[in-house]
Amino acid sequence: MFNKIMLFSLVLTAFSCRSTDTNMTPSATTHLMERTKEIQLTENDQALILTHGQEQTIIPKSMLPIQTVMIGTSSAAAYLKEINAFERIKGVTERMFFYNTDIAAGIASKTILDVGSSNELNMETILTHKPQLFITSTNPVLAKYHEQLEQNGIKVIYLDEYKEEDPLARVEYLKLFGKLFGKEELANNRYEQVVKSYDSLKTVFAQQPKGHFTTLVNTLYGDVWYLPATNTLQAQLIADAQGNYFLTQQGDKNVLNKTFEEVYAVAKEAKYWINAGDFESLAALKASYGNYSWFTAYKTAEVYNPLLRKNAAGANDYYETGVVRPDLILKDLGKIFYPNTFPTTSFYFYKKLE
């Protein structure tokens, strides 16, 4: 969704979900996901077993396919759209964060309910309509509500795909949705198609003449410039597009904290600057902090933000469709770094600030 929310997500400590149906202990199991680190999906004759950290959520196969679901993340909407199961969404939280216009249309027609926010769930509405499944992300603030849902027979699945370091690992969550919603073949096909597209683009960009340039990312948040370590999703996307991320430090953390002076000392000559906040123009970027204009990328107007699919309410499809279509993000980045590639196609997410 928004950069601030994503920043909060990166530094949030994962809150473990509660185990359900623990009497159904898995016997002979089959592992269904290969790339993901945040979750593991296995199955046996009786159930799907979703492992998240040290906890498990067990979905009896007698419940499948799921026909009614409420969701608390825009990524869940993207996965459901990708497998043609969008109509099974019966409720959402934080409605303003969904880019897909079918969410707003559903709320207007009351086929989709507004069931709360990131701070509070409308338990009366949820329990009255009682979906089979509630998909959310780990959030300690909502933990008591999630526990109540489970106590009332509503399965809760925690989706923290934003923590995955591999862009294609996030796409692999399609397999989970395919299993849950009876769309396994379609989900697997879509996954393979996106992987093929992504790998093909990687090959194209790897064959480009290596330019002597570097790429700067993000902006200050308060007095701190939060930068993704090289083992993170954002850095991986830049690497796969041959974008020469200016930072080479890996470390144990997903986010590295730097001062403006530290970043400027290393990246002042960076040719490109991407994901520079939510600013829609160079003037707005400079107005937020005048010293941004010191960077070469600012002076040469090589600053790019994913703004092309952002609506009036602020919801951004980069954080929705972009989750299941990292190949579209990669193509945009490659076009930024190597403008002569795909000269007849337009950017999908990114916009050059003017």
Description:
By secondary structure, the chain is α/β, with parallel strands linked by helices. The protein folds into two domains: 17-194, Rossmann fold (3-Layer(aba) Sandwich), CATH 3.40.50.1980; 208-352, Nitrogenase molybdenum iron protein domain (Rossmann fold, 3-Layer(aba) Sandwich), CATH 3.40.50. It is 35% helix and 16% strand. It contains 13 helices and 16 strands. It has helices spanning 3-11, 74-82, 101-109, 123-129, 143-151, 167-180, 184-206, 233-240, 260-267, 282-288, 296-299, 321-324, 326-337; strands at residues 30-31, 39-43, 47-52, 55-60, 69-71, 89-92, 113-114, 133-136, 155-158, 215-217, 220-221, 224-228, 255-258, 272-274, 303-305, 351-352. The strands form four sheets. Strands 7-6-5-8-9 form a five-stranded parallel beta sheet, sandwiched between helices. A four-stranded antiparallel beta sheet has the order 1-2-3-4, covered by helices on one side. Strand 8, helix 5 and strand 9 form a beta-alpha-beta unit. Helix 6 (167-180) packs antiparallel against helix 7 (184-206). The longest helix is centred in the middle third of the chain and has 23 residues, at 184-206. It starts with a helix and ends with a strand. The relative contact order is 0.13.
CATH H-level homologous superfamily name of the largest domain: Nitrogenase molybdenum iron protein domain
First-to-last CA distance = 23 Å
Sequence of strands across the biggest β-sheet:
7-6-5-8-9
- Which CATH class of the largest domain? Alpha Beta
Return residue spans where pLDDT drops below 50 for at least 5 consecutive residues: 1-20, 22-26
Q: From the 3D coordinates, which CATH architecture of the largest domain would you assign?
A: 3-Layer(aba) Sandwich
Radius of gyration, whole Å: 21 Å
Sequence of secondary-structure elements: HEEEEEHEHEHEHEHHEEEHEHEHHEHHE
Structural class: alpha/beta
Alpha plus pi helix count: 13
Mean pLDDT: 91
Number of distinct beta strands: 16
Largest sheet: 5 strands, parallel
The share of residues in helices is 25-40%
The fraction of residues in strands falls at: 15-25%
CATH topology of the largest domain: Rossmann fold
Number of domains: 2
Give the overall shape, derived from the CA principal axes. globular
